[in-house]
Amino acid sequence: MAGERVNLLGLPRAELEAFVATRLGAKPFRARQLMKWIYRRGAADFAAMTDLAQDFRSQLSEVARIAVPEIVAEQVSNDGTRKWMLRMDEVQGIETVYIPEPDRGTLCISSQVGCAMDCSFCSTAQQGFNRNLSVAEIVGQVWLAHRELGEARITNIVFMGMGEPLANYRNVVPAMRTFLDDLGYDLSRRRVTLSTSGLVPQIYKLAEECNVALAVSLHAPNDELRNELVPINRKHPIAELLTACWHYIDMQNGRSVTFEYVMLDGVNDKPEHARQLAKLLKGRPAKLNLIPFNMFPGTRYRRSPAAAILKFRDILNDNGVIATIRRTRGDDIDAACGQLAGRVTDRTLVRLGTKLTPVARAPAEVR
Ligand code: SF4
Questions:
Q1: Does the annotation count 245 as an active-site position?
Q2: How many CB atoms lie within 10 A of CB 278?
């Protein structure tokens, strides 16, 4: 909209430098000073940025702003996990979760309001899809968490909240640049993880353009089962997905891809599934993360018994594939992966109330 002030959280360094040059006639070092104030000191008010000239600050406040989502609710789990519901506009809400551990603090952020991928075990999917988050809305989740956490450190950022990040490629990649930038959140590439359900063309694109850790929601060892659990598999089957993953690791000189595998009782947790998985991943740069399923109202799935999960892990390990079991966190506040609810007005419902197929209703920004 003409005259609307630009939210600086939406501009990674190169764009911020261009913005101060073209809109304010300022040198690039002004952009660097601004980044230190915004990301290191958590400032949102230009008036507080005392080492910037008064004139520059006044000009800035006419054309720019630092706007973050509003917190509408916060829950703190017994284990210290914190979950924030954030208002994105009049109607929509998303969730962001902070998970503290002795050696790290992980922030799980969202990339979309809802999700169009329709994975059958996922709570977010039940709500449908509304829209992509902007760069500023993605970065704003981290800015807010920093403010709320005070001394507690965010050492890792994972795109495992609401949404399929690669379906919002054009906004997720600039946001990640700010996470990696030494004047932004200064995280190493191993500490920013993008988790995808398997948008193969975007994995190839990402391999060319950005260097972060890759996680893939696999959840099944064969196409028949994965078609049912992760419907994008009908478009990009397992063999095609794995080829893209190995290419990504080659291009990025990465260590391994983390494959997430939610353990669903009697569905994908049988010994034969573990053996099929081992065949797919043995000798490859791969780690498996077994996730005990967190039930939510209306789901038809149940969590696999602990003994089945342990046996599954052992078969994988015995067959040369590294597999670990994820400790469930924030159970009492529904903060686990695939459980983020938010508040979504589903725009994918057609008039008669039937949903389009997941591939057909992927957002327009998918490239
Ligand atoms: S598991 Fe991830 S990709 Fe699948 S529907 Fe849920 S949020 Fe979307």
A1: no
A2: 19
| Protein residue closest via CA to atom 6 of ligand 1 | 122
Quick one: pLDDT at residue 90? 80
Q: Is 337 a catalytic residue?
A: yes
For ligand 1, pick from 115, 130, 195 the residue to mutate: most ligand atoms within 8 Å of CB.
115
List % helix, strand, coil for the chain (3-state, nearest 5).
40, 20, 40
3-state secondary structure (DSSP) of residue 5: coil
SS3 (DSSP) at 191: helix
Residue nearest to atom 7 of ligand 1 (CA): 163
User: Quick one: DSSP state of residue 253?
Assistant: T
pLDDT for 262-284, tens place per residue? 999 999 999 999 999 999 999 99
Q: Which member of 95, 137, 164, 260 is catalytic?
A: 95
pTM: 0.91
Mean pLDDT within 16-42: 95
Mutation probe of ligand 1 site: the residue of 113, 122, 233, 264 with most atoms within 8 A of C-beta: 122
302 within 8 A of 265, measured Cβ to Cβ: yes
Burial of 354 (0-12, 13-18, 19+ CB in 10 A): exposed
Check: CB of residue 329 under 8 Å from CB of residue 105: no
Task: Count other Cβ atoms within 10 Å, centred on residue 139.
Answer: 30
Complete domains list, the chain, with CATH = 6-65 (1.10.150.530), 67-354 (3.20.20.70)
Residues 6+ apart with CB under 8 A from 273: 220, 221, 225, 312
Task: Please enumerate in sequence order all residues whose Cβ is within 8 A of that of 236, keeping only pairs 6 or more positions apart, or say none.
Answer: 198, 199, 200, 244
